[in-house]
Design a protein that fits this description.
- The protein is mainly alpha-helical and 416 residues long.
- It has helices at residues 11-33, 50-62, 66-88, 94-115, 122-132, 140-173, 179-188, 196-206, 210-250, 259-286, 291-301, 304-322, 326-337, 339-354, 370-391, 396-406, and strands at 5-6, 9-10.
- It has a two-stranded antiparallel ribbon with strand order 1-2.
- A hairpin with a 2-residue loop joins strand 1 (5-6) and strand 2.
């Protein structure tokens, strides 16, 4: 375990990816089982007092956007790793491998988004991945600088957007506001303060039959893919993928850093980024989750997300290096090797848990109560991944993806 590698796989990368795929569910579960906007504002649905408030607060500080950032950085790392292997292999070349992977990821992601989970990340990765591939061989430091620059530019855009929203709101509530100013604010504020009727409609449709749920999911998915994805998700993913490529080349994900370097990142993440994020969360709560204030403060939380995510990863990487919890790290590594399958299986399980054509629990569990579903899915992932890989070469969806990329069925069963 000291090298973090097994054959041509890096146990350290797989373990971190496994941790990220588990952590992502802590936030995704909110949108899977409650009206969409509850993901952003706990006062909208799911509870924001007592245990529900603490569930929101802890997730807001430690996991919201942090695990997704880590998962995205790992995608950037994998881009470099897979391209390097393709260069020395006898099959498809690096570019063919990469862009075929992206094409089929896009196709699977679109099916996933419309039929299972509107918060799909695969489509975003497929589109963002187009831009990063030509830069995979840049100097690691330059890749990290580019990534930080993209995320800084995105922060600037969001600050400008927030200022515009404030100006539009002020114009709309002015005693002499024109009908045009009021209408403009109503349209602009929809994404930060949708009407309660939208949530009630979602509850009714997701508790209904398959086609009613499909209608609700299609409405939300198309809205997200035409508004949030181009201006927010794709630029953020590009920036984080660049950072991931650079970090991989420095050896971060493969235990190439010293204990002191990992410890420094942990200290910065937990000693600086976490307190700053916690103060912003406290200010959101103090505002009573007022939509404009919440939106503005969450914009300022964005810079700390990758830092906290990397601090989480650093803790696990030190555990892998020390081999102190081998059973856990092996389970996490197996979950990470099957991250694609586990991501999609999570959506299938939660779909059948919350939708009306399953258990019909949509809108019935509070934010805190949803943790029971999270822990059950975590147990499933950690239990099934390792024995599956002892018998099969890949996870089921990894096998499908790889076979589509190669356009040839790949070996599935392991030789006895």
């Amino acid at each position: 375990m000291a090298t973090g590698s097994a054959g041509d796989r890096h146990i350290s990368i797989d373990a971190v990816r496994g941790m990220a795929i588990l952590g992502i569910l802590l936030m995704n579960i909110v949108g899977m089982g409650l009206p969409t906007f509850a993901y952003v504002n706990p006062a909208y649905a799911g509870g924001h007092e007592g245990a529900d408030l603490w569930t929101w607060a802890i997730n807001n500080v430690l996991t919201d956007g942090k695990m997704r950032a880590l998962f995205t950085m790992l995608f950037g790392a994998s881009t470099v790793l897979i391209a390097s292997r393709a260069e020395v292999g006898s099959g498809l070349g690096p570019a063919q491998t990469h862009y075929r992977r992206l094409f089929w990821m896009f196709v699977i992601g679109m099916v996933h988004a419309y039929f299972l989970w509107f918060g799909d990340i695969l489509v975003t990765y497929a589109l963002a991945g187009i831009f990063i591939f030509p830069f995979r061989k840049l100097n690691a430091r330059l890749q990290i600088v580019i990534g930080v620059a993209v995320l800084t530019a995105l922060l600037g855009y969001h600050l400008f957007e927030t200022a515009m929203l404030d100006a539009m709101h002020a114009a709309a509530i002015d005693p002499g506001a024109s009908p045009a100013a009021i209408a403009a604010w109503k349209e602009a504020s929809f994404l930060i303060n949708p009407p309660a009727s939208m949530g009630q409609l979602e509850i009714m449709q997701f508790r209904g039959n398959f086609f009613q749920a499909l209608e609700a999911r299609t409405r939300v998915t198309s809205l997200l893919q035409t508004t949030i994805m181009p201006t927010d998700e794709i630029p953020e993913a590009i920036g984080q993928m660049f950072i991931g490529m650079g970090l991989f080349q420095t050896g971060f994900f493969t235990l190439g850093w010293s204990n002191r370097a990992y410890g420094t990142l942990i200290a910065v993440g937990y000693g600086l980024a976490v307190p700053v994020t916690a103060i912003l969360a406290w200010l959101i709560w103090k505002s009573g989750f007022e939509p404009i204030t919440l939106h503005a403060l969450e914009v300022w939380q964005a810079p700390t997300r990758p830092i906290i995510g990397l601090a989480h990863a650093s803790v696990l990487l030190l555990i892998v290096r020390a081999a102190t919890l081998p059973a856990l790290t092996e389970r996490l590594a197996a979950a990470g090797r099957m991250a694609f399958s586990n991501y999609l299986m999570t959506s299938i399980i939660t779909n059948l848990t919350f939708c009306g054509y399953g258990l019909g629990l949509y809108g019935q569990l509070s934010r805190f109560q949803q943790l029971g579903v999270v822990f059950a899915v975590w147990a499933f992932i950690l239990i099934w991944s390792k024995p599956w890989l002892e018998r099969f070469q890949y996870g089921p969806f990894e096998w499908l993806w790889r076979s589509l990329v190669q356009w040839n069925p790949q070996p599935f069963l392991k030789a006895t």
